[in-house]
Design goal:
This protein is α+β, with helices and mostly antiparallel strands. It has helices spanning 33-42, 88-97, 125-146, 253-264, 322-333; strands at 48-52, 55-62, 65-71, 75-83, 102-105, 111-118, 196-198, 201-205, 208-211, 217-219, 227-232, 238-244, 269-278, 281-292, 295-306, 309-318, 336-338. The strands form three sheets. A seven-stranded antiparallel beta sheet has the order 10-11-12-16-15-14-13, sandwiched between helices. The chain has a six-stranded antiparallel beta sheet with strand order 1-2-3-4-6-5. Strands 7-8-9-17 form a four-stranded antiparallel beta sheet, with no helix packed on it.
């Protein structure tokens, strides 16, 4: 049985690549099929439409999923089959943490992501576009979550009991984020050139540096482009830097980070979140708890999204060791600098 509990989250608005229209102030309580058709065309969506009872079903493809928008004039329903053999436990977890969407079985027995939007309070075209864009992002994140896919990165990971030895990528709950934006209007973007560094400064790109204590942290060889591992002198702490050219909306970062973590440990959870300004840059601070193998581990990091792309700077260690190293971890994170 799939639970339908709700919890408050930040709505995600993702631009799908269409030209922006001047914002309208007219709120409507009913949206005709002609108006919905025009709106979808303005979003550059290639769609089909057909009558469905008293409603009209508009359908378009997104990352291999067919998204159906059922226009009921005074409301609309968005749905997409994400997986025929999904994990009910993970579907329940999704439903507990999201109020705007739910995972449910559709008429064909597929695990579908569903969202219902009423127009009674009045909506504008911009609001409907935001609902559609949010749902498209949720389809990408939700399908990745319920199908048990691994994060799409070869992020280096070191087990807590072996110091600097690197473990298999599948053990790391921290992965790339750009996959959440790779819709039909986006193409994968190769990561930027390798960061360069001198002891104490990691030059992530032309505008972003990470300053750290070289006596406490040593940089290991990069595992792949745009990803760097630093090791704490104790051997018990690690730091990971992932830089990507595609900018993930800051309000979407928590969902994407949690989807990556829960792809490795379904019980992973965000235990602390806060937006803060660090050295002039607005960052999202997240603390995520997850089991790496059998080791309860805490990941604490800053997440940046802006004109310079997306950058994650994350420290991690075994949960039992965090009190010992947390101050040094925060000193490390606070060395993140975005220059203008």
């Amino acid at each position: 049985m799939i639970l339908r509990l709700s919890a408050s989250i930040v709505l995600i608005t993702v631009i799908l690549g269409h030209a922006q229209q001047p914002a309208s102030t007219n709120r409507l309580a009913a949206i005709s099929d002609a108006s919905m058709r025009s709106l979808l065309q303005g979003m550059d969506l290639q769609f089909t439409e057909k009558p469905s009872g008293d409603s009209t079903a508009f359908a378009f493809q997104l990352n291999g999923h067919i998204v159906t928008l059922l226009n009921q004039v005074k409301s609309m329903q968005l749905s997409a089959c994400v997986e025929h053999h999904f994990d009910p436990k993970k579907a329940n977890q999704w439903n507990q943490n999201h109020f705007s969407t739910r995972v449910d079985l559709d008429q064909d027995g597929c695990g579908a992501l569903v969202s219902n939007v009423g127009f009674a309070g009045g909506v504008t075209n911009e609001m409907i576009e935001a609902f559609i864009s949010q749902f498209c992002t949720d389809v990408t994140i939700g399908s990745r979550f319920v199908t048990n896919l691994q994060p799409g990165s070869r992020t280096p990971s070191a087990p807590m009991d072996t110091g600097t030895q690197q473990a298999d990528r599948s053990l790391s709950p921290i992965g790339t984020m750009a996959w959440s934006q790779l819709g039909q209007h986006r193409k994968p973007t190769a990561p930027g050139p390798d960061a360069t560094s001198v002891p104490g400064i990691l030059k992530i790109n032309g505008n972003i540096n990470l300053k750290y204590d070289p006596d406490l942290w040593k940089q290991a060889a990069p595992h792949n482009d745009g990803e760097f591992l630093l090791l704490h002198s104790s051997g018990d702490g690690h730091a990971l830097v992932i830089a990507e050219r595609i900018a993930v909306p800051l309000d979407a970062i928590e969902d994407v980070a949690l989807a990556n973590a829960q792809a490795v440990d379904p019980n992973a959870k965000v235990v602390f979140r806060h937006k803060r300004r660090v050295n002039g840059a607005v960052l999202c601070f997240l603390k995520i708890e997850a089991n790496v193998g059998t080791v309860p581990t805490v990941y604490s990091g800053y997440f940046y999204a802006g004109e310079n792309g997306t950058v994650q700077v994350v420290t991690y260690t075994a949960k039992t060791l965090l009190p010992k190293y947390e101050r040094e971890f925060m000193d490390f994170l606070n060395g993140f600098v975005v220059s203008k």
